[in-house]
Design goal:
membrane; 124 residues; binds protoporphyrin IX containing FE; mainly alpha; Cytochrome-c oxidase; transmembrane
């Protein structure tokens, strides 16, 4: 049987859950909540968003198995990983990378638009 187009998304989501919860446990244990936005967005843009995309693409395979969805996957994941690395730097005071963080967020924004196009055009 052909693999569901949701599988890769759901597997990536679980990795982000581990990372996000790891930040949460670190914050709780250390009492240092500086990286709270990193924790929140690994969990929400990583775990929650990717799991939801995966479930939607599993349920509507026509929306998930096309070139747009592949581009969306890589833009979202690269944007998120690079973006969270840059956000850590910004929160630690390295404001010079803020423009790059802006670019990373626009990369994720582009992935979100591709998702919207796929959902609007291919789910009916
Ligand atoms: C063992 C798991 C987790 C631990 C120990 C944990 C711990 C924390 C801590 C210490 C904060 C900082 C609170 C503050 O400074 O006010 C926080 C904030 C937050 N966490 Fe978690 N967290 C966990 C799992 C999750 C998960 C699974 C999600 C989402 C799916 C999540 C979403 C958030 C959000 C959105 C915030 C920011 C809340 C706000 O804006 O005040 N967390 N978490
Ligand atoms: C590219 C996409 C996104 C960008 C650029 C972005 C940006 C931001 C910014 C600038 C803040 C304020 C942080 C602060 O005050 O320190 C924030 C907070 C927050 N965002 Fe997002 N966000 C994005 C996507 C999302 C998504 C998809 C969710 C939920 C599914 C979400 C949930 C939250 C929550 C709960 C907070 C409050 C907790 C915190 O301060 O970290 N965000 N976001």
């Amino acid at each position: 049987m052909l693999q569901s187009p949701g599988v890769l998304w759901i597997k990536a989501a679980v990795i982000y859950l581990i990372i996000g919860v790891g930040f949460g446990i670190y914050m709780g244990a250390s009492g240092n909540h500086l990286l709270m936005p990193v924790h929140a967005h690994f969990n929400l843009l990583g775990w929650a968003s990717l799991a939801l995309v995966g479930l939607i693409y599993h349920h509507y395979p026509a929306a998930g198995s096309n070139r747009l969805a592949t581009v969306q996957f890589w833009l979202h994941n690269i944007g998120l990983l690079v973006g969270m690395g840059l956000l850590v730097a910004v929160l630690r005071g390295n404001t010079s990378v803020e423009p790059l963080l802006g670019v990373a967020s626009m990369v994720i924004g582009t992935a979100v638009v591709l998702f919207a196009i796929n959902v609007l055009q291919r789910i009916n």
